[in-house]
Amino acid sequence: MRRRLATLLALAFLAAACSALAGDIPKPLKSRFVTGDPVWREIPVRDDNRSDFNRCWQTAVATILENGFDIATMDKDSGYIRTTWNEGVVALGGPWSYRVQLSLKFVFLPMDPKLPPGTAPVIDKVRIQAAGEISQSFRGVIKQFFRGYDQVLLQNVFQDLQGKIGIR
């Protein structure tokens, strides 16, 4: 019983500490930034797009570029795209900086071994993530640092891409 009480108190303390830390996040980011591990959102691909990987790939690349990101890593064979860090999504000024990076991964259905080599893969879904970092520095020393994701950017890019290739 004491052990369980100690565990509950420790969890309550941890939750309070996380809330206190989250209180330090600059006001312009409080409604959009979620601390913790970045999440992946999944876009099921429409049936008429599943077999057209080249079109879906070009649409994904164009969507990322249209949203103001530059491509850092792109591997069409594996269906993976990662952008450079973008510091222009929300300008904070002062000692604070904020940057966001998009990652996108195509998920394919298993290939039928009876199909000839070089057959285009069939897309099942597209996964997207908007990882973010907030830091406060003073004289070149980082005083506070938060890692998480930008839920507003994630939702915006998700809806943009879903409207173009996903199920409506």
Structure notes:
Helix 3 runs antiparallel to helix 4. The protein has a single domain, classed as Alpha-D-Glucose-1,6-Bisphosphate, Chain A, domain 4. It is 32% helix and 33% strand. About 10% of the residues have low confidence. Strands 1, 2, 3, 4, 5, 6 and 7 form a seven-stranded antiparallel β-sheet that branches. A hairpin with a 4-residue loop joins strand 3 and strand 4. The protein is elongated and about 60 Å long. The termini are far apart. The chain has four helices and seven strands, in the order H-H-E-E-H-E-E-E-E-E-H. With 168 residues, the chain is an alpha+beta fold.
Q: Concise description?
A:
With 168 residues, the chain is of the alpha+beta class. The chain has four helices and seven strands, in the order ααββαβββββα.
Sketch the topology as an H/E string, one letter per element: HHEEHEEEEEH
Low-confidence stretches: 5-21
CATH class label: Alpha Beta
- Supply Rg: 20 Å
User: What is the oligomeric state here?
Assistant: single chain
Q: Report the count of strand segments.
A: 7
Shape: elongated
- Can you tell me the number of structural domains? 1
What is the average of the pLDDT values?
87
Number of helices: 4
Roughly how much helix do the residues carry, as a percent range? 25-40%
Report the CATH topology name: Alpha-D-Glucose-1,6-Bisphosphate, Chain A, domain 4
Strand content: 25-35%
Q: Gap between N and C termini, in Å?
A: 51 Å
